[in-house]
Write a sequence for this structure.
């Protein structure tokens, strides 16, 4: 494979054909701030925070490092007065949307941002799109980026609680500004977006202890969507806790019953 | 959308009777159920109902196996798709640069005032939807007003009043 000669912040390094600037920078321990990038998902370049300068041929240009594939020998500058100037504006805009994110607050201090410059929107969502991409990746089909331009926002289809959510919580985990919440109440799992219920997923009841656990996922469908047609979906009726305890009891009985450990009627293991 | 519309008075209510055989004809016969033709299918469905009813979009999603969220993204992305019912007539005023310079802003205001609706909205009697578009490609005859795909070049307040008078008389 062709090896590219890249000058990364003044240092000569080599890159693989098609490697993104972000990948290369990380390989060489060069820090580029990112917000909408996840190694598990395809880059979407939504937040623009990773903007760097690249010179391929004659003219320098600003590109997003997370999705810019290197195809030619080039010079990359990840931190310079120009780059910082551009990034500062981006952080100011993001801060206007979402002033509560500690991540952004830290960056704002670092870049000396003027937080009075843009009227705060207090939307709390930076529209990075990570949640929608994660949702799609787990075949959840619940969150989407609706609208466009300044009106773009995360929403469920027709603004209604989704029927296709599998209750995995990937969106909750991945949101860089912790805008999405998940709660298990009244035997159902709820994903809460913009303070509104985005989906409800029924939780099964453990046949052993009666507690609600894990969501009831239409696994058959999920597996089909993943192209795993033949594997029969597992169907748990006992919660993980009980299943662990039951297994421990079973094993304990098999090996230690002869020593009289299991004397009580309940069959409860009394040895720690 | 007229006779069979439901009785409820809520403006949000978007219930229409969906003719699934017609949808099947559009999706399967006209476009071979090919998901690449999704946007054209959506346009065809919108031509039938004058907007995209939720039930029809759901059906489309099932047949062509495209997640509902994706179709919703597309439907909200393009201004030409509407998820809300539209009036019997759709009046679009061009507010592109040329038309704007020739006073289309005032025309929008005029209609808004007279019909009591903001741009993008529909009158309560479902007769008229007022829309603004950005350049319909006829700048030479600005300002342009389009009523149901018919173009009115060099439109003015009189043209609009004429139209609205006819509408009121209906
Ligand atoms: S809700 Fe969170 S993850 Fe989703 S787009 Fe907004 S900031 Fe990103
Ligand atoms: S990380 Fe590159 S644009 Fe967000
Ligand atoms: S600006 Fe109205 S037609 Fe071009």
């Amino acid at each position: 494979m062709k090896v590219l000669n890249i000058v990364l912040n003044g240092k000569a390094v080599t890159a693989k054909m098609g490697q993104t600037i972000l990948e290369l920078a990380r390989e060489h321990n060069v820090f580029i701030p990112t917000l909408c990038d996840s190694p598990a998902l395809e880059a979407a370049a939504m937040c623009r925070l990773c903007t760097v300068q690249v010179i391929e041929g004659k003219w320098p240009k600003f590109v997003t490092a997370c999705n810019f594939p290197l195809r030619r020998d080039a010079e990359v500058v990840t931190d310079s007065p120009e780059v910082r100037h551009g990034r500062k504006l981006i952080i100011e805009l993001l801060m206007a949307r979402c002033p509560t994110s500690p991540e952004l607050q830290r960056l704002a201090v670092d870049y000396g941002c003027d937080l009075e410059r843009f009227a705060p929107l207090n939307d709390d969502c930076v529209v990075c799109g990570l949640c929608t991409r994660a949702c799609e990746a787990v075949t959840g089909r619940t969150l989407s980026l609706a609208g466009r331009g300044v009106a773009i926002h995360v929403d469920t289809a027709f603004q209604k609680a989704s029927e296709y959510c599998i209750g995995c919580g990937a969106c909750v985990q991945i949101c860089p500004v912790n805008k999405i919440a998940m709660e298990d109440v009244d035997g159902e799992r709820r994903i809460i977006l913009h303070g509104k219920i985005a989906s409800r997923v029924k939780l099964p009841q453990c046949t052993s202890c009666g507690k609600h656990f894990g969501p009831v996922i239409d696994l058959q469908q999920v597996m089909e969507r993943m192209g795993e047609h033949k594997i029969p979906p597992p169907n748990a009726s006992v919660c993980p806790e009980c299943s662990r305890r039951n297994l421990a009891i079973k094993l304990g009985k098999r090996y230690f019953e002869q020593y009289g450990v299991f004397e009580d009627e309940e069959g409860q293991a009394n040895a720690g | 959308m007229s006779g069979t519309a439901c009785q409820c008075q809520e403006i949000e209510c978007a219930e229409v009777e969906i003719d699934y055989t017609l949808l099947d004809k559009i999706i399967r016969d006209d476009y071979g159920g090919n998901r690449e033709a999704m946007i054209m299918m959506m346009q065809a469905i919108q031509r039938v109902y004058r907007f995209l009813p939720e039930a029809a979009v759901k059906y489309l999603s099932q047949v062509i196996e495209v997640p509902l969220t994706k179709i919703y993204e597309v439907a909200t992305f393009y201004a030409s798709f509407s998820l809300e019912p539209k009036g019997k007539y759709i009046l679009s005023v061009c507010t592109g640069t040329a038309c704007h310079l020739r006073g289309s802003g005032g025309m929008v205001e005029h209609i808004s005032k007279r019909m009591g609706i903001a741009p993008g909205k529909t009158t309560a009697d479902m007769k008229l939807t007022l829309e603004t578009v950005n350049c319909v490609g006829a700048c030479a005859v600005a300002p342009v007003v389009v009523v149901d795909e018919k173009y009115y070049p060099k439109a003015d307040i009189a043209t609009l009043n004429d139209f609205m008078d006819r509408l009121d008389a209906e």
